[in-house]
Write a structure and sequence with these properties.
Blueprint: H1 6-23, H2 27-46, H3 51-68, H4 82-99
Helix pairs in contact: 1-2, 1-3, 2-3, 3-4
């Protein structure tokens, strides 16, 4: 499989967020789609080439996951389960590690 560019990953992340979170209000589908994208981004950053760009994308994506699973937003139409919150906490921890 050919390595995806940062621009392709950014476009994918935006599309996933727009489609599953904002339009469909389907948090589990959003998480199921965006977590592999984050994992791929983390792998790419370890490969060295453009590591800083992939790190920035991973920081943004992990932040989005964490924020979308926070009950404090009280987003109409979004139900956040305990499993969703656990995923969000994991993403928040990843975000802190990357941003440090």
């Amino acid at each position: 499989m050919e390595k995806l560019t940062p621009d392709e990953l950014i476009a994918g992340e935006r599309s996933i967020l727009q489609t599953f979170y904002w339009e469909k209000k389907d948090l589990p589908a959003y998480l199921n789609a965006v977590r592999p994208l984050l994992a791929l981004t983390l792998v790419y950053r370890l490969q060295g080439e453009e590591a800083d760009v992939y790190t920035e994308l991973a920081v943004r994506t992990s932040y989005n996951i964490a924020s979308m699973t926070w009950t404090g937003w009280d987003e109409q139409g979004i139900e956040i389960s305990a499993a969703d919150m656990a995923i969000g906490l994991d993403a928040a921890n990843t975000n802190v590690e990357l941003a440090a």
